[in-house]
Specification:
387 residues, alpha+beta, Arylsulfatase, C-terminal domain, four-stranded antiparallel sheet, three-stranded antiparallel sheet, 12 helices, 18% strand
Length: 387
């Protein structure tokens, strides 16, 4: 059923794609079968891993300054004791990236009428009823739920459609070609229509009865990796798949890069081949910064906006992406040193960033003995006056 119909199922209908070869059956692509594609799995895993492990903080604005506040229980364990926040974020991010939507039944509300517990549901169990461009109700496990009873996040939206688009549906042809190539290779080496080899008698013509008996003897020997004994009149020649016929490797390489585009991951970060063979960056921080800005950043913003709906206004949620921008020790020391020198950062704040306690009097005295105490040394003007 199409996503654009009045009664829309979010779990993709089976979308048949043309096989690579006429010898194989048609590959069927759904949200679940698509994850058999290594590039699809890698993209979903990477995006889910990064976003789900970012610290989640709650804030409110006081005199134009962002002040951290206590997080409600729903931002600690949205599904109760059975599901912590990192698992909730990972599961919902995977659904968002492969289907454009994620759903959960709100099983408890707090005193302000906001969701206090959310039970996530499988996409295959959700049907959305749309009337006049708005969601009228959800049907989950054959039970009807009104919009305020369901937690619904979406991405990849278009005007006039209250649910998100599914990358799996739009990339079905690319995924199907890859899966068909895999199935073709499996069929070829197991039960393909072309024989695995040719056993020929070079001296005489073999009758059908003799051919059957010889074939059985040959198969009985090689099945257990035993030796097959014959005279000089027999010749065995294995038949190999032609690369131009199967086109297996080419289809696989194309599928990985193409899927990386659909699912918002650079091919090189999922170990996919790139046109130039390799991509070189000045530092890991530079690479991660590009990944954050171009690929992960928009998804982070959407998640922050959705999670902010769990808090009373004007409080809001921020995902701390600094963890993604971890620098090497030398670069980090240089950046912090410049911030202290330009008075953007206090020394005590810098030590807190490194999870260190403030300097003690004994430690400061060590610095004085090693480098002198600039607080007791005369200034340039005072030295000139004394002279």
């Amino acid at each position: 059923m199409s996503l654009f119909s009045r009664a829309s199922t979010v779990d993709d209908s089976e979308i048949p794609t043309r096989p690579v070869s006429g010898r194989t059956g048609t590959a069927v692509v759904t949200n679940k079968s698509a994850m058999q594609h290594s590039a699809v799995w890698a993209c979903l895993r990477l995006r889910g891993d990064l976003i789900s492990t970012m610290p989640v903080d709650a804030y409110r604005m006081v005199d134009g300054i962002q002040v951290e506040t206590k997080k409600p229980p729903v931002l600690v364990a949205p599904g109760g004791e059975r599901m912590k926040l990192h698992e909730f974020l990972y599961s919902t991010q995977v659904d968002l990236d492969r289907a454009g939507n994620t759903f959960g039944i709100i099983t408890a509300f707090d005193g302000l009428g906001l969701p206090a517990r959310i039970e996530l549901v499988d996409l295959a169990e959700v049907t959305v009823r749309i009337i006049d461009g708005q969601i009228d109700h959800f049907r989950i496990r054959r039970q009807k739920y009104l919009p305020h009873q369901v937690w619904h996040e979406k991405q990849f939206t278009v005007a006039g459609l209250p649910i998100g688009l599914s990358p799996t549906s739009y990339s079905a042809m690319s995924i199907g070609q890859y899966l068909s190539a895999q199935q073709f290779a499996l069929d070829w080496f197991t039960d393909g229509a072309i024989p695995a080899g040719e056993l020929r008698n070079t001296e005489k013509t073999v009758s059908p009865v003799e051919a059957t008996a010889i074939k059985q003897r040959f198969k009985a020997s090689v099945a257990g990796r035993d030796l097959f004994v014959h005279g000089k009149d027999w010749e065995y020649k294995p038949i190999q798949a032609m690369a131009s016929d199967a086109n297996f490797l080419q289809v696989q390489q194309f599928g990985i890069v193409d899927i990386a585009r659909f699912f918002g991951c650079p091919a090189d970060v999922i170990d996919g081949a790139v046109a130039t063979g390799s991509i070189t960056y000045a530092s890991i921080s530079q690479r991660n910064l590009q990944l954050l800005i171009m690929n992960i950043g928009p998804a982070i913003f959407r998640r922050e906006s959705a999670l902010s709906d769990l808090l009373p206004r004007p409080r809001f949620v921020k995902l701390n992406s600094d963890a993604l921008l971890r620098m090497d020790p030398q670069t980090r020391a240089e950046v912090i040193g410049k911030q202290i020198a330009t008075r953007q950062l206090a020394p005590s704040e810098a030590r807190a960033l490194e999870n260190r306690m403030p300097f003690t009097d004994e430690q400061l005295a060590e610095f004085d003995r090693l480098f002198g105490n600039p607080r007791t040394q005369p200034t340039t003007a005072e030295s000139g006056a004394t002279t």
